[in-house]
Amino acid sequence: MDMLSDNPTTIGIIGGGVAGMSCALWLRQLGYTPIIIEQQAELGGQLRHLQRINRWVLGHPNQTSAALAQQYAAHILQENITCLCNVELRQIACADNDFNISLNHQGQQKAIAANALVIATGARVVGAEMFTDTPGFSTTAGIGFYPTDHIDKLAALAGKTVVVIGGGDNAHFTAKDLALAGAKVHLLIRNQPKARVTIRRDVLELSKQGSIVEHLGVGIAAFQQIGDSIMITLSSGESLTADYVFARLGFAANTDFLQAFTAFAGINKTKGYIQTNNACQTSIKRVYAIGDAANAEHQSVVNALAEGARAAQAISEEMAS
Ligand SMILES: Cc1cc2nc3c(=O)[nH]c(=O)nc-3n(C[C@H](O)[C@H](O)[C@H](O)COP(=O)(O)OP(=O)(O)OC[C@H]3O[C@@H](n4cnc5c(N)ncnc54)[C@H](O)[C@@H]3O)c2cc1C
Question: CB 194: neighbour CB atoms within 10 A?
């Protein structure tokens, strides 16, 4: 087995998205040896797939998220930070506050000894699994689950009837984009709308104008494919027929994998998101969690960047004490 590091200041970072990269950079500047452990072939996480201009990062007014991801990854390489991509974690054990990680890296077994671990495994879009028990779902085609998958269809959907399912920001943004593109939109919200004030206001304005029809407090009882259309039966008994359906069902933390490793036994979570204190420490000594994996509420690039920095500083203080 290839032993990657016995440096006493090695910090293992699981996840090579923005949060993991930011933490690695800060640890490097603070004199530590970070190792990024990433399951995908490249660094960048969710940002790599987002070709839209990201309007929320100060100083990068015209850049897409994918371009930001490339820039961040290039910075990590420039700093000569060790990155193991295409990794499958095999074992993570803790002994005397140190962590022994066994992994498969591109077909080779490797081991890392680390003094602290940072979990930066992000979140994923909740998708079709939510409807596996809903009658008719398995035989219905044409339901989009990814938050931006309506964008390249906007022109084609002008004049069509579209159902959007969900009550959060992404459902509201999708409904607004479609309505402005000329579609007739039905927005189905199971409980109460949870979108931010500004986007909620825009949707209410479009509702007043008649291009969005809201259905509040309704669930989906069944789907049925009828030719190229989809009929949705609501829990109220009403039915809607649409040319296309976009479901915006929220996000789930990528933290299920923790259960497989003894080092993380009993780690505290809330609805799958890892609980942390202000210093990004989890309920397990020397285990930190940052970015989307630890945040249901503040999922953004700048939050991920900031938490990477905070965790690195907290690790530095813990190691010095
Ligand atoms: C459609 C969409 C649009 C968005 N738009 C914006 C926007 O405009 N502005 C903005 O600021 N934010 C936006 N966000 C949110 C932003 O992308 C995230 O908040 C940010 O990328 C989170 O970074 P992260 O590093 O915490 O997680 P991620 O980017 O999810 O990275 C986690 C990494 O961990 C890896 N990983 C997971 N499990 C394992 C494992 N077991 N072993 C090893 N590696 C693992 C993953 O492969 C991934 O590379 C958007 C998100 C989505 C989905």
Answer: 14
Other Cβ atoms closer than 10 A to 277:
10
Q: For residue 82, report the distance from its CA to the centre of ligand 1, in Å.
A: 20
Domain ranges in the chain are 2-124+251-320, 127-247
Taking a C-beta distance cutoff of 8 angstroms, is the pair 238, 231 a contact?
no
Q: Does ligand 1 lie within 6 Å of residue 254's CB atom? A: yes
pTM of the predicted protein model: 0.91
Equal fold, 2-124+251-320 vs 127-247? yes
Coil, helix or strand at residue 103: strand
User: Rounded distance, CA 209 to CA 238, Å?
Assistant: 23
User: Among 18, 46, 273, 310, which is best to mutate for testing ligand 1, by the most ligand atoms less than 8 A from CB?
Assistant: 46
Here the tokens at position 21 are: 């990269």
pLDDT score for 7: 55
**How far is Cα 150 from Cα 175, in angstroms, rounded to an integer?**
10
Residue 83 CB contacts under 8 Å (≥ 6 apart), including other chains: 16, 35, 36, 38, 43, 76, 77
Cα radius of gyration rounded to whole Å, the chain = 22
- Give, in words, the CATH class of 127-247: alpha beta
CATH number given to 2-124+251-320: 3.50.50.60
Q: What is the pLDDT of residue 309?
A: 98
Counting atoms of ligand 1 from 1, which one is nearest the CA of 148?
1
Q: What b-and-e string marks burial along 286-305, b requiring 16 or more CB atoms within 10 Å of the CB? A: bbbbbbbbbbbeebebebbb
The string of DSSP letters for 241-307 reads EESEEEE---EEES-GGGGG-GGGTT--EETTEEP--TT-B-SSTTEEE-GGGG-SS--SHHHHHHH
The whole-number mean pLDDT for each consecutive block of 10 residues of the chain, a chain of 321 residues, reads 62 98 97 97 96 93 96 97 97 90 94 96 95 94 92 95 97 98 97 94 97 96 95 94 96 96 94 97 96 93 98 94 81
Residue 260 token pair: 């497989």
